[in-house]
Design brief:
Blueprint: E1 5-6, E2 24-27, E3 31-34, H1 39-42, H2 60-67, H3 93-104, E4 107-108, H4 120-131, H5 144-158, E5 168-171, H6 173-185, E6 191-196, H7 200-209, E7 212-217, H8 227-233, E8 238-244, H9 256-269, E9 272-276, E10 301-306, H10 308-311, E11 319-322, H11 325-338, H12 344-354, H13 358-382, E12 385-386, E13 394-398, H14 407-418, E14 420-421, E15 423-424, E16 438-442, H15 447-460
Helix pairs in contact: 4-12, 5-12, 6-7, 6-11, 13-15
InterPro entries: Aminotransferase_I/II_large (IPR004839), Kynurenine-oxoglutarate_AT (IPR051326), PyrdxlP-dep_Trfase (IPR015424), PyrdxlP-dep_Trfase_major (IPR015421), PyrdxlP-dep_Trfase_small (IPR015422)
Domain Aminotransferase class I/classII large: 107-456
GO molecular function: kynurenine-oxoglutarate transaminase activity; pyridoxal phosphate binding
């Protein structure tokens, strides 16, 4: 049995100065600079070691003072400032890899956004909502028609009847739903159990909430839940278990047996469950099971979901949380002070999307299964050891046949020498060593892009 891993904050480290020749520049609300470093340095995020700062925000006062200096005078940068609970986190791996894809002209099979557009009927609904003047603040917890559409869809999927007025909260993407749930229901010092590898926002938002993170590692080839480890991890301080099924990055789907065992442990120990189900319509080899639908679980479950993955509209950032009223209260309290309300016209269009005929979901699954086959067969032909993916649009592989020391080194080589982007999975673990042999590819791309990426790897990637 492996020892449990518990997150603890790292010490404050002194930031280094930046040189003017920065690697690339992002433009958000402030200018952000990332130094010219290898991916190995960039991706030290989860090691709790920051050898250099990944982000530099230039304030107006600093800009004004620098502009008055002679160009030959060395410019002094202000030290980075960040709360201790966030100092270990840098730019997300997805932003980093997508930027590197552009820099090197690589085919991006890393970040999970489609390179094709969402359905016309949904986009037309958004345009019509804008034209109809639905452009002011929405009700804080959601446009009523959209909340009703979520409830209707949830009943079709799970058989559960929920009150759209009291049990559904619309958020700015599932990422905000996750944040609102953590901040609204977790107290400082509460223990929360994660299954590694895990989506990176889980750790960051739990850190903001002051939680103590316990990690149960899912291991290849089947990434099964080690039930005995889970049993030993639950204590009187355990507040919640966070589940993602279908699972990013592995493509695993939690079986009914696994979910039932987790449910029994949660009921026995009075533990909540937060379940991220954004890939529920991308279940290929078994039916998706929502934890809330299991006996005795709705009253202790927050179900998190979004529009983006199912309708190829990731930029709309429309998500929601479904929970009984006593848990919805906490979610809504946090949501009120995070974003208050989500895009009004997009909510009206999202209601149209969720009422799509069942044929849409059948066609969606068929299209993705064809894409999956292209990538999986291609990766096998290249020489990877490919692990089964039952859901999501991700595939995890073992890169070690190609002789690189770890996932970071492999992804760096793959981008620069082969021209294809994958995601190093070590960033999804509290202990990066657990993921050093694995990388993640996505197949949410058009078939031509997938075939081109496979051809590049066949031509340039050689086993050692």
């Amino acid at each position: 049995m492996r020892s449990r891993c518990i997150w603890t904050p790292c010490k404050v480290l002194t930031p280094l100065s930046f040189k003017p020749s920065s690697f690339f520049t992002f433009s958000f609300s402030k200018q952000l600079l990332l130094p010219d470093k290898s991916i190995a340095a960039i991706s030290s995020t989860r090691r709790g070691i920051s050898s250099y700062p990944s982000l530099m925000a230039s304030s107006p006062s600093l800009k004004d003072s620098v502009s008055t200096q002679n160009e030959s005078t060395q410019k002094t940068q202000q030290p980075l400032q960040v709360a201790k609970r966030l100092e270990k986190f840098k730019t997300t791996i997805f932003t980093q890899m997508s930027s590197l894809a552009i820099k090197h002209g690589a085919i991006n099979l890393g970040q999970g956004f489609p390179n094709f557009d969402g359905p016309e009927f949904v986009k037309e609904a958004a345009i019509q909502a804008i034209k109809d003047g639905k452009n002011q603040y929405a009700r804080g917890y959601g446009v009523p028609d959209f909340s009703s559409a979520i409830a209707e869809r949830f009943k079709k999927d799970t058989g559960l009847v929920v009150d759209p007025e009291k049990e559904i909260t619309v958020t700015s993407g599932c990422t905000e739903a996750i944040a609102a749930t953590m901040l609204g229901l977790i107290n400082p010092g509460d223990e929360v159990i994660l299954f590694a590898p895990f989506y990176d926002s889980y750790e960051a938002t739990l850190s903001m909430a002051g939680a103590k993170i316990k990690c149960i590692t899912l291991r290849p080839p089947d990434f099964a839940v080690p039930i005995d480890e889970l049993k030993s991890a639950i204590t009187q301080d355990t507040r919640a278990v966070l589940i993602n099924t279908p699972h990013n990055p592995t493509g695993k789907m939690f079986s009914r047996e696994e979910l039932s065992t987790i449910a029994s442990l949660c009921i026995e120990n009075d533990v909540l469950v937060f379940t991220d189900e954004v890939y529920d319509k991308l279940a290929f080899e078994m039916d998706h099971i929502s934890m809330a639908s299991l006996p005795g679980m709705y009253e202790r479950t927050v179900t998190l979901n979004s529009l983006g993955k199912t309708f190829s509209l990731t930029g709309w950032k429309i998500g929601w949380a479904i929970a009984p009223p006593h848990l919805t209260w906490g979610v809504r309290q946090a949501h009120s002070f995070l974003t208050f309300a989500t895009s009004t016209p997009m909510q009206w269009a999202a209601a149209v999307a969720l009422r799509a005929p069942e044929s849409y979901y059948v066609e969606l699954k068929r299209d993705y299964m064809a894409k999956k086959e292209i990538l999986v067969e291609g990766l096998k032909a290249v020489g990877f050891k490919v692990f089964p993916s039952s859901g999501t649009y991700f595939v995890v592989v073992d890169h070690t046949p190609f002789g690189l020391e770890n996932d970071i080194a492999f992804c760096e080589y793959l981008i620069k020498e082969v021209g294809v982007v994958a995601i190093p999975t070590s960033v999804f673990y509290l202990n990066p060593e657990d993921g050093k042999n694995l990388v993640r590819f996505t197949f949410c791309k058009d078939e031509g892009t997938l075939r081109a990426a496979v051809d590049r790897m066949k031509e340039k990637l050689k086993r050692k």
